[in-house]
Protein: TIGR03086 family protein
Organism: Antrihabitans stalagmiti
Amino acid sequence: MTDTTANLDWRTALAASHRALQTTVDAIGDDQWDLPTPCSEWTVTQVVQHAAADQLAYASALGVGDGPTYDPFSPSGAIDGSATDLVRDAIAPTASAWADVADDRATAPTPLPHGELPVEIASGACALDAAVHAWDIARAIGAPSPLGDELSAQLLAVAREIVEPLRNYGVYAAIVESKGEAGAEDTFLRYLGRDPHWTA
């Protein structure tokens, strides 16, 4: 764990990431569910399904709930009920699970191949997942980015701890190189294999 990640305010980052995901999903218009996203194989609906399932997987790893009922990496593209409810019902148990993690706890389990990680990294990975998919959806529907440089800087520190092995699984694409100066949000997105200026 680096000095940067040791100083992360992980509870604040997690709450901000959860808000970003919920707010962005709430903003999806009736005619936007089948739009393409920066996740090239998935529509807006599929990214929503994936993001919700990932949150449930983190909750389950912490001992809350049974995890998602479908494969997060094979989202159907059809939501039974409300997407707002789907995401809310995924975030709530996940937030509750992390709230029960004591401040002095050193490590926490994750659904990642990494397994147990320092709490700041484990919770940061959960936050990163929610935040980047909130950005994916926002970009697809033409909404403002829900990230910002402050949150992105915190999540970039986490990404640098966990992402490289995950590229081997196809979870993240190769780094998108910048041709000039870039702020924390752009750097964060590029590190995760996303073009900050992506358009459909």
Observations:
- The longest strand covers residues 107-108.
- The domain at 3-148 is CATH 1.20.120.450 (Four Helix Bundle (Hemerythrin (Met), subunit A)).
